[in-house]
Design brief:
Radius of gyration: 22 Å
Order of helices and strands: HHHHHHHHHHHHHHHHH
Number of strands: 0
Distance between the termini: 48 Å
Shape: flat
Number of domains: 2
Strand content: under 5%
Structural class: mainly alpha
Number of helices: 17
Length: 348
């Protein structure tokens, strides 16, 4: 609470709380009507009942607003959470952490302080300059895009809490173990020379407190920023999911990504690495693939590889990592993703 004008701050807080509560009530009311609305809207179109096209259209009408609404709610909530964090403060929390404990702390922080791949270069330089060990840094960089609030929120909303919880546990395991392995390899000399030459810079933030209204406003700003940037990917992902849902034969998908095909998990990872998407765009595809009978582990391995090992991210990281270190990073993380895929297929 601001100490300069407490009454005004309290009045603003009350106004923002009332607005947020009203918006949440409206969100719930609309969300409950999405399924019947999709069925009604599809029935009004000149499409043959039971046809592939009608099923694809109904899937899109239902899933596009559902994913957008889930994304908006989750991003708003995490925007409020992120008002307590910043890249500088994260650097300060990670600096001086030893391997093991540092890897766990970095991976957990990655969940709550998600940064897009375009932020990898300044974050990596900032971490290195603050004295964060290389392996600890990689644990953060693996966890941040792969186990972010969008992935967990959408998995929970679309596939249930069991899958979301399992994804969280195994995703953290990949980030922690991969970072620990890279740290034990002592590869700091494979950083680009200019990165190794960077000296520590001040990282303290100005000491100021935010009111509740400020934090809710930060959540709204996060919605404008993140949802405003990713909505085309969401529509593209839902569109791809609708095509898979309506047209892709279950037998073919079962053969390619089914539980009995031993090569399906490595194939899914190889297919996913060159692709570029984010969790919001890829999860509707995951949902459609699972509906067609694809194995859970194979589909999640595909999702992890798209999010955590995308080609554009590797291109960005090339600014600070030598090709040898990038190869090690990709190899270690891909191995962890393969293990998760095989394990999920064995357990679920």
């Amino acid at each position: 609470m601001s100490v300069s004008a407490p009454p005004l701050a309290r009045a603003q807080d009350a106004k923002w709380i009332a607005g947020a509560a009203a918006a949440l009530a409206l969100w719930i009311a609309v969300y409950r009507q999405l399924d019947p609305f999709a069925g009604w809207a599809a029935s009004k179109l000149p499409l043959e009942p039971g046809s592939h096209l009608r099923e694809a259209v109904r899937f899109f009408i239902y899933d596009a607003p559902k994913v957008m609404m889930l994304l908006t709610l989750v991003v708003f909530a995490m925007g409020v959470v992120r008002s307590f964090f910043s890249p500088q403060r994260t650097r300060a929390l990670l600096a001086g952490r030893r391997e093991g404990v540092g890897n766990v702390a970095a991976a957990i922080l990655g969940v709550f302080t998600p940064f897009c791949s375009c932020s990898a270069v300044p974050l990596f330089v900032g971490f290195v300059s603050a004295g964060v060990p290389l392996g600890v840094t990689f644990s953060f960089l693996i966890a941040a895009p792969m186990i972010n609030e969008v992935a967990l929120g959408l998995l929970f909303g679309l596939l249930g809490w069991r899958i979301a919880a399992a994804y969280l546990v195994f995703g953290l395991a990949v980030a922690i173990v991969s970072g620990w392995i890279i740290g034990r390899m002592k590869l700091e000399h494979w950083l680009e020379p200019w990165v190794r030459a960077v000296r520590a810079a001040p990282s303290d933030l100005p000491d100021h407190s935010l009111t509740l209204a400020d934090r809710l406003r930060a959540g709204l700003d996060a919605v404008r920023d993140i949802v405003g940037r990713v909505w085309p990917w969401i529509l593209a992902g839902v569109g791809a999911g609708a095509l898979i849902h309506g047209y892709a034969p279950a037998e073919l998908l079962g053969e390619i990504m089914g539980r009995g095909a031993w090569w399906s998990v490595p194939a899914a990872v190889l297919i996913g690495v060159p692709m570029y998407s984010n969790a919001a765009g890829i999860i509707p595809v995951v949902e459609a693939l699972l509906a067609k009978g694809a194995a859970l582990g194979t589909v999640l391995a595909f999702m992890m590889s798209v999010i955590a090992l995308s080609l554009p991210e590797m291109i960005i990281l090339r600014n600070v990592l030598t090709p040898r270190l990038i190869a090690v990073f990709v190899g270690v993380v891909a191995t962890g993703i393969l293990a998760v895929g095989f394990l999920f297929n064995a357990l679920f």
